[in-house]
Amino acid sequence: MKTKQFLALLALIVLTNACGNVNKAETPPALTSAVASVSASLDSLSNSLSTAAAGLAQVGADTAVVRSELQRLCNECSFGSEFVFTTPEGILLLVEPAVYYPSQGSDISAQAHIIKAFETKLPALSDVFSVVEGYQAVVQIHPILAEDQLLGGVSGLFSPAHLIARNVVPIIGDEPFQIWVMEKTGVVLYHPDASQIGLNVFTDPSYESFPKMRLACEKIADEPSGTTSFSCSESDSDKIVKRKVFWETLAQEGNEWKFIWSKASR
């Protein structure tokens, strides 16, 4: 009898732990492809910044060489909106392209990614925020080090919505599913319904009518991958639809983006 009770309890534990987990074979291929494609773009930017930081470590405060390197990065990266050099004191000293020259001299020492990268002396990927140039962006920064001495940082700024869309839209095509992306903070980085980009799933009043969606997104934020379901309104409609959901996580330089595949379920 005790053996049967133990086996029944074991089966219950296994079933409980399985809820929300997903076999890799069940993960939609489009979701995996989307994560891989965006990851490759971020890796490419990171490699370019790493090369630039290593080269600038050899030239010190030669602003002409630094500006030339920023211009090279602008020409090389197809999705970067601008590239900047920041002093160890957190002053945005040099910017390219020229349209952003007015922001030169700004004190950005209080920005979280600057503090993190300069304290740890490691690359960092910021959350999306309103940059001094006046638009929403994510910043990827690599500290410039010479024999462990901090000489500043070289950064690339880009629109996450633009980066994700250019990678994800061709993967989705005309298929009857969505892929959207949020930060662990709940901020929507990309959504096929552009009106949702920039909203926070956890705090924005738009989502108050969908508590199950918020609970699901809390789980998505906390766990690297899985599957769930929730109801939400269709874009440009008051119709409420239950959606089957899978998610995966893109981890990059201390930050995480949650890629969420969803499809209306019968």
Short description:
This protein is α+β, with helices and mostly antiparallel strands and 266 residues long. The protein has helices at 2-18, 29-56, 63-76, 112-120, 160-172, 211-222; strands at 82-86, 91-96, 106-107, 124-125, 129-130, 136-146, 149-158, 178-183, 188-190, 226-233, 240-252, 255-264.
As for the number of domains, it is: 2
What is the tally of helical segments? 6
The Rg value, from CA coordinates, equals 22 Å
Structural class by secondary-structure content: alpha+beta
Could you name the CATH topology of the largest domain? Beta-Lactamase
Query: pLDDT below 50 for ≥5 consecutive residues: which ranges?
Result: 1-20
How is the main sheet built?
7 strands, antiparallel
CATH architecture of the largest domain: 2-Layer Sandwich
Please estimate the helix content.
Answer: 25-40%
Question: How many strand elements?
Answer: 12
Taken from the alpha-carbon principal axes, the silhouette is elongated
| Average of pLDDT | 89
CATH superfamily of the largest domain: PAS domain
Explain what this protein looks like in three dimensions:
The chain has 266 residues and is α+β, with helices and mostly antiparallel strands. It folds into 2 domains: 39-159, PAS domain (Beta-Lactamase, 2-Layer Sandwich), CATH 3.30.450.20; 161-264, Beta-Lactamase, CATH 3.30.450.20. The chain has helices spanning 2-18, 29-56, 63-76, 112-120, 160-172, 211-222; strands spanning 82-86, 91-96, 106-107, 124-125, 129-130, 136-146, 149-158, 178-183, 188-190, 226-233, 240-252, 255-264. Strands 1, 2, 3, 4, 5, 6 and 7 form a 7-stranded antiparallel beta sheet that branches. Strands 9-8-12-11-10 form a 5-stranded antiparallel beta sheet. Strand 11 (240-252) and strand 12 (255-264) form a beta hairpin. Helix 2 packs antiparallel against helix 3 and helix 2 packs antiparallel against helix 5. The radius of gyration is 22 Å and the shape is elongated.
